[in-house]
Amino acid sequence: MENTLVDLVRLQRLDRSIAHQRQRIGGLPAEIQEKVDIADELKGKQVSCDTRRKEKLVHASEWEVTVQGHETRLEKLEAQMFTARDAAAIQIGQHESEALRVKVSEAQDAALRLMEEAELIAAKGESYAVSAAEALHEVESFRSQAGEDETELLGELKALEDRRTEIVGRMVGDAFQRYEKLRVPKKGRPVSRLVEGACEGCGIQLNPTEQGHIRVAKDVRCCSSCERILVDAPLWARGTA
After folding, report:
1. Which tens digit of pLDDT belongs to each residue from 143-164?
2. Are 36 and 139 in contact (CB under 8 A)?
């Protein structure tokens, strides 16, 4: 029975390693998706910049059309004033010309401002494009590496599971059945060490008679409080060596 108790300690450690290994394998797709999301976000920002840049250029073009319209009207007005003989008509034309020049200047400034903004947005978009390309390259590299890692991790998991099968196969009595019954309720810690007469799992102090039974190790003994399988410290040390 001593060997079975030692194996129970080994089995508990092994099951924790198996759970950790499965978690690592299961986490690979999540890591890949996280990197894909980053690349997609950068690509989305690039597309958004491109859209905003085009909008700015369209508005700038509209202002340029406005400028052309005002300049055309200004040319006609100046031609009319050149041939005009009436002082009042000339004065009115001059006022309108001055107003048109102000509008032309304002429209030119608006168009220039929009074009400058478009250039800034374009530069930012190019930066996002570079970052997105780098992120996509990282995704592909990580996918390749993850495939190799997954193969390695699966091999390690297979070795751990084979070791578990070996340990379970040599256990005597109902030790494994009792272990399995407690494994989930005790969150992967169905076996506890007896330390200075107390259960390490819950801390309760056992009476001397029960301590003696556990130290003799003739059968599987459980804590009267938390129901974990108790193993004396020397046997525990063998199982964790």
Report:
1. 888 888 888 888 999 999 999 9
2. yes
Catalogue all structural domains in the chain, each as residue range(s) with its CATH number.
Answer: 2-169 (1.10.287.1490), 175-240 (no CATH)
67-108 residue pLDDT tens = 999 999 988 888 888 787 788 887 887 898 899 999 999 999
- Sequence-distant (6+) residues with CB within 8 A of 177 are none
Q: Given phi > 0 = left and psi -120 to 50 = alpha, else beta, which region is 197?
A: left
Reading the block at residue 188, the tokens are 């992967």
DSSP-assigned letter for residue 228: P
**DSSP labels for 52-85?**
HHHHHHHHHHHHHHHHHHHHHHHHHHHHHHHH--
CB neighbour class for 70 (10 Å; exposed up to 12, middle 13-18, buried from 19) = buried
Q: What are phi and psi of 232, to 5 degrees?
A: -65, 150
- Residue 79 is predicted with a pLDDT of 86
HSE, CB side, 13 Å, CA atoms: give it for residue 10.
Answer: 20
CA distance 75 to 68: 10
